[in-house]
Amino acid sequence: MKLRQRSIFTAVAAAALLVLSTGRMALSDSLGATTPSSASAAAAATSGCGKTPALRSGSQTITTSGKSRSWILRIPDNYDNTRPYRLIFAYHWLNGTAQIVDTGGSDGSVWAYYGLKQLSNNSTIFIAPQGINNGWGNSNGEDLTFTDDVLRLVENDLCVDTTQRFAMGWSYGGAMSFAVACARPTIFRAVAVYSGAQLSGCNGGTQPVAYMGIHGIHDSVLNISNGRQLRDRFVSNNGCTPTNPREPSQGSLTHIITAYSGCRAGYPVVWAAFDGDHTPSPNDGSTSTSGARTWTSAEVWKFFTQFQSGPTTSPSPSPSASPSSSPSASPSASPSASPSASPSASPSASPSGGSGACRVSATVNAWNNGLTEQIAITNTGSSTVNGWSLTFTLPSGQTITNGWNAGYSPSSGQVTARNVSYNGTMAPGSTTEIGFQATHTGNAAKPTAFALNGNPCTVA
């Protein structure tokens, strides 16, 4: 996926500024403008569960707000109507289309749905809505109503896990994803906003939603300050410890991912800043862009799939009232406090039950003096684990600064990660994902051994 030349960015930046001043939208399609397409807690299941579906993968239409709107649906191969599925809305950019999101455009299937469709391995239902005039003006809340109506139609026909609804998008699509986070916080579990700004409104915007923001430090279309403002709204809503996260320097061609500490259990905020321009598919070590080589797909997939059970307050089963068109107040100013050194999340009750048989895989993403580590814990035993602790030894020089989905103590040496309130039960065969951010002094290796409730795990 190749960005257009600087002259296009300059023209679009001017258009974006004009639109921001008038309340209308203006973002560039740096993926290439085209003609619009014609076309684990127990899951909270929808009315479509158990039904023989009438919907099929492909282009769809629906009448909403008095207009005929198009969208594309992708149902997993070998769909099982007794299994509640994760569901992801993927919004296109200005002058992009649902068709490009669905096919991956010039990058092909590896980039379909921002790369998440391939990573999903038939575990997820995907929806690519088509914006009016290839954008997301959300006039009088019509794009939110469109989202509501499509979701209602899908859930009446297909088996969806209502605790596993997500939204994502780049540029104008990022703005629409932010609008969803503001207006539908009890419907959508988490959002990922690539290079976004508050352009599609923010009706509500006072409740917590798990939030991931991705933005280039020298974005010439939507300055990174826009992304920081969106992020800081949910840093506040989610009760996270305010901080100014580290961001890469220009010319480093790297990215830095920060997981905020202190967030309300189940509502993390993650900020990914990269040395690049206005793109959803940056590549470390290069000024080029490629959906096949970018790191963003894996990071967003990891963010979405960490939610193995519903939030403390479960999302409502289906969207309801139509939204107001008026945005709420501007996001709060950028925070200034220093990062908290102590890991986040308090552990719940002492572990009990289960056989302790387990498998663990760990993935490290490191930069010059920091890293993030994602750990997947699978219960390979025959009994349910009710309350767990995972012990491992950090390599010398590593110190945990914050974490998610577990409480970590101490921050170095032999560490114990204990479950939090929403992920303490692990059924046989289920997988729970946790993770942390740490500093290091040159050794960014991952632990070599893990034990679940005192029993050694197989390391994958």
The termini sit apart by 33 Å
Query: How would you spell out the order of helices and strands?
Result: HEEEHHEHEHEEHEEHEEEEEEEEEEEE
Fraction of residues in β-strands: 25-35%
Radius of gyration over alpha carbons?
21 Å
How many strands, which pairing sense, and closed or not: the largest β-sheet? 9 strands, mixed
Helical content stands at: 10-25%
Coarse morphology: globular
> Which segments are poorly predicted (pLDDT under 50) over 5 or more consecutive residues?
1-41, 309-355
Mean pLDDT: 83
The main sheet orders its strands as: 1-2-4-3-5-6-7-9-8
Number of strands: 21
Short description:
The chain is of the alpha/beta class and 460 residues long. It is 17% helix and 26% strand. It has seven helices and 21 strands.
Q: Could you characterize the architecture of this molecule?
A:
With 460 residues, the chain is an alpha/beta fold. 17% of the residues lie in helices and 26% in strands. The chain has helices at residues 6-22, 98-103, 116-120, 142-157, 172-183, 224-237, 296-305; strands at residues 58-64, 67-74, 85-91, 124-129, 160-170, 190-194, 210-216, 255-259, 269-274, 358-366, 370-379, 385-386, 389-393, 399-404, 407-409, 414-418, 425-426, 431-439, 450-452, 455-456, 458-459. A nine-stranded mixed sheet has the order 1-2-4-3-5-6-7-9-8, with helices on both faces. The chain has a five-stranded mixed sheet with strand order 14-18-11-10-21, with no helix packed on it. A hairpin with a 4-residue loop joins β15 and β16 (414-418). The longest helix has 17 residues, at 6-22. The radius of gyration is 21 Å and the shape is globular. Mean pLDDT is 83; it is low at 1-41 and 309-355.
